[in-house]
Design brief:
eight-stranded mixed β-sheet; 14 strands; Rossmann fold; alpha/beta; about 325 residues; globular; about 35% helix; four-stranded mixed β-sheet; 2 domains
């Protein structure tokens, strides 16, 4: 394989891939590498799967409580969203905002330009809505949030996306977000909850290993992303998708398992896999009320109100910047 020259490479992707795939004892890749255009499309498919309860549960919470959420805020409000995707659920909140004020500025931030274009189409027709998209990886790149005169900011980080990161990483993401906010601004955070009497581990595992294989395709697409961006040599058929529950860490883990001994070229470096060796591609942490409060407090927020579904499987928390 011809080694690509460094100027032609996406430096952030290269750094993340080399750091994670040379780590010992566990190879890993960061979850933001999932979200190229194809990965964003696959994730939208996942959100519609019968096994993936998270999206429909969060949507139901928004539908039930959107007006109440905006009654708790200081109007007028401008809304910014990290990892907005196609904003399918966000429309519920934006329509509620439009009932409380004549003009609404929405600032979606996402790595996928195509997802933001789809969001624009999804949200068409909401009265008084103006969309100001920002194509950026909010993990690795600087982003901005515009504050119109006399407005407060409501930052959205929904879909349990925060669960993809370790507690330290999640705190760092929220602390960075906090630097864009003033005291009294708000955060609306969606988080999946830990197993309980009404929510089994089996339900969790099915959400990350669906019968149709969409999540498996999503997981493997991270290798397609590396092949395209870095001219890597991953054979997707040589890896299998696995989802595991780690009770000690309270998280679902997604892995790609090497089906045989193999060596892969990555930007001129040879990465060796043993049969059964894995790449840890994603965590999905599941929260308790205590761990959620600890996360928010450590990032400079205080809980205002938490909304749940009737079975207490998912939480949407409104927090105030302090």
């Amino acid at each position: 394989m011809t080694t690509p020259t460094l100027p032609a490479l996406n430096e952030a992707v290269l750094h993340a891939a080399l750091t994670g795939l040379t780590a010992v004892p566990q190879k890993s890749l960061p979850p933001w590498l999932f979200y190229d255009d194809r990965g964003s499309e696959l994730f939208e498919q996942i959100t519609q799967l019968p096994e993936y309860y998270l999206t429909r549960t969060e949507r139901a919470i928004f539908t039930t409580h959107a007006n109440e959420i905006f009654r708790l805020l200081k109007p007028p409000v401008t809304i910014a969203e990290l990892g907005a995707g196609t904003a399918a659920k966000t429309g519920i909140l934006l329509r509620a905002a439009a009932r409380f004020q004549p003009q609404v500025l929405y600032q979606p931030i996402d790595v996928s330009a195509s997802a933001l274009e789809a969001a624009d189409a999804t949200l068409a027709g909401i009265p008084g809505l103006r969309i100001q998209p920002h194509v950026a990886n909010y993990i690795t790149e600087r982003y901005t949030i515009t504050r119109p005169a006399h407005h407060s900011i409501l930052a959205l980080y929904i879909g349990s996306s925060i669960g993809n990161f370790t507690p330290a990483e999640a705190t760092s993401i929220l602390r960075t977000l906090r630097t864009h906010l003033a005291p009294g601004d708000a955060l609306l955070l969606g988080t999946d909850l830990a197993p309980s009497e009404s929510k089994s581990v089996e339900t969790l595992l099915a959400a990350y290993d669906d019968a149709a294989g969409v999540t498996a395709a999503f997981n493997k697409n991270i290798l397609t992303h590396l092949n395209r961006e870095l001219d890597a040599g991953f054979d997707l058929d040589a890896f299998a998708h696995r989802a595991r529950w780690n009770a000690v860490e309270s998280r679902i883990e997604m892995h790609l398992v090497s089906l045989a001994p193999q060596t892969v070229d990555l930007a001129g470096k040879r990465i060796t896999f043993a049969a059964g060796g894995t790449i840890h591609t994603e965590n999905s942490y599941k929260f308790s009320a205590e761990s959620l409060a600890t996360l928010l407090t450590g990032a400079g927020f205080t809980v205002t109100r938490t909304f749940h579904d009737p079975a207490y499987t998912f939480a949407v928390t409104l927090a105030s910047a302090v």
